[in-house]
Write a structure and sequence with these properties.
By secondary structure, this protein is of the alpha/beta class. It is built from 12 helices and 19 strands. The strands form 4 sheets. Strands 3, 5, 6, 7, 10, 11, 18 and 19 form an 8-stranded mixed beta sheet that branches. It starts with a strand and ends with a strand.
């Protein structure tokens, strides 16, 4: 049988190239040949973590797309395609989570809600062990279970979207971060008890962090017609690039400011604080200042620090001053849904209007260049790294 390669995480800034037979699809699954895979900020974080205990070298990559090369006889029934019946030759983008459908979280919140499922599986999640097939051990069949490989086996109950013929694969691979940005904005849309008006043409919005998700969050907010979009960060080059991409009205470099100066500056610019503040920076201390930048009766959404996997030091917060006294609504992006991914995919199909492609600053074409690209993840000119396989 023909063989193909995949990357598996081994240790700090260390992966190994493994080779296995290209798998046959399970009865209710299909196999895709990967066309593009994007590097998530969590991938960069994982690769830079020293002394991270690993039982084995695990699959990696959850932002990917590819072309269907083979299908099991029940794949069209069990793989959930939002925009048509699947066939060999179709290009598809993937919602990387599979939920079990029968745990307490799935029964309470609905199937397909990642974060709520107690037995959820994510493609390329490093060391997850659900069952003999849904795991991240590449030595176990069907081996290819992450985006950074030449193939991926797509299991039953995976949600996918058929990619338009003219849409570049490197754009389709941005579905996951775009869906995170979409969910962050959705958290602020719903009005609460008649006082929190959500997002409207009078909204003063603040986005903290000029990375890919921060940029796409800004793109969505601008398309929704907010009155003012303010973007903060710590690097002039990244802020300038982000402003060009998302159309922020004001950018503020907060690097050399004290906490008080940052809050005062944003309060002044927005005329009282952000009606909506979305924190996309992966720095725990940014959460406090971002909440302090939120206006009375405003909405604060945490994205970058929603999970504590970085094991950063605990922080203290005066809750009455920062949250209760201002009656702000505080939420985060941990759970997401296939419906939000569908809305994100529809936005990505407008790639000719919205400059998603310009976010890709580091494009590479070989699996061997994964680590060299990750090594640039903290460079001033880095926004997003994407692997695109050349035919």
């Amino acid at each position: 049988m023909a063989k193909a390669k995949l990357l598996a995480v081994r240790d700090y800034m260390d992966v190994e190239m493994l080779e296995y037979d290209i798998p046959e699809p399970m009865e209710d699954g299909l196999v895709i040949k990967v066309e593009a895979a994007a590097i998530c900020g969590s991938d960069i974080g994982t690769m830079h973590m020293k002394d991270y205990p690993r039982e084995f070298s695990g699959n990696i990559g959850h932002e990917f797309c590819g072309r269907v090369v083979s299908m099991g006889p029940k794949a069209s029934e069990r793989v959930r395609c939002y925009n048509g019946e699947l066939k060999v030759g179709d290009r598809i983008a993937v919602y990387p989570w599979i939920t079990c459908g029968h745990c307490h979280g799935c029964l309470k919140h609905g199937e397909g809600v990642c974060g709520a499922c107690e037995n959820g599986f994510i493609y390329g999640g490093d060391e997850m062990q659900i069952n003999e097939y849904l795991n991240h051990d590449p030595s176990k069949y069907p081996h290819f279970k992450g985006g950074f490989g030449e193939y991926v086996h797509i299991f039953a109950n995976t949600y996918v979207w058929k990619i338009p013929d003219d849409m570049p694969s490197k754009i389709a691979a941005l579905l996951d971060p775009c869906a995170v940005a979409m969910r962050a904005v959705e958290q602020a849309v719903t009005p609460l008890c008649g006082l929190h008006e959500g997002i409207s043409t009078t909204t003063h919005a603040v986005v903290v962090g000029p990375g890919p998700i921060g940029i796409m969050t800004g793109m969505i907010l601008k398309r929704m017609g907010v009155e003012q979009l303010v973007l903060t960060g710590r690097n002039d080059n990244k802020l300038k690039r982000a402003q060009e991409l998302c159309g922020a009205d004001v950018v503020v470099n907060v690097r050399d400011m004290t906490l008080e100066e940052r809050v005062e500056k944003i309060t002044e610019i927005t005329g009282g604080g952000g009606d909506v503040v979305i924190n996309c920076a992966s720095a725990p201390e940014s959460s406090i200042e971002a909440m302090m930048m939120t206006a009375f009766l405003g909405t604060y959404v945490e994205v970058g620090n929603a999970a504590s996997w970085t094991h950063e030091p605990k922080l203290t917060l005066n809750l009455p001053d920062v949250i209760y006294g201002k009656n702000i609504h505080v939420t985060s992006v941990v759970a997401n849904t296939s419906k939000t991914f569908d809305r994100a995919f529809r936005l990505l199909t407008k790639w000719k209007e919205i400059p998603f492609e310009k976010m890709i600053t580091h494009e590479f074409h070989r699996l061997e260049d994964f680590i060299p690209t990750v090594a640039h993840g903290h460079d001033e000119d880095y926004i997003k790294g994407v692997l695109t396989f050349e035919d």
